[in-house]
Amino acid sequence: MSLLAKAQRDARHLQHITPESAGWRYIGFDVWMLKQGETVTLESGDRELCLVLVAGFASVKTRN
Predict the structure, then answer these.
(1) Are 60 and 51 in contact (CB under 8 A)?
(2) Angle 59-39-45 (CA atoms, 0-180°, nearest 5)?
(3) For 34, phi and psi rounded to 5 degrees?
(4) Is the four-CA dihedral 47, 54, 25, 12 of positive or negative sign?
(5) How far apart are CA 24 and CA 8, in angstroms?
(6) Which residues lie below 8 Å from residue 29, measured CB to CB, with a gap of 6+?
(7) Predicted local confidence at residue 1, as pLDDT
(8) pLDDT at 13
């Protein structure tokens, strides 16, 4: 199965793909482009989160 989606170029949150919108069973993903010093806070709820860093450096904090 493949997915083709255009990014929202003028935003820092470029993509939001859910399992339903992609026709997948479990996995969704978001694509963020952050400038130095910008932050994102995400809530996992009952789902697992995975960070895939494509370029640059990141500092990650978690809490229960």
Answers:
(1) yes
(2) 85
(3) -110, 145
(4) positive
(5) 21
(6) 15, 17
(7) 56
(8) 84
Kind plus residue range of the DSSP H or E element containing 19: helix 19-22
DSSP character string of 31-57 = EE---TT-------TTS-------SS-
Report pTM. 0.70
3-state secondary structure of 21: helix
Residues of the chain with pLDDT under 70: 1-3, 5, 7-8
Q: How far apart are CA 8 and CA 31, in angstroms?
A: 10
Token pair of 4 as six digits: 């083709």
What was the pLDDT predicted at 2?
63
The answer to whether the CB of 14 falls within 8 A of the CB of 32 is yes
- 42: which 2 tokens? 């995400």
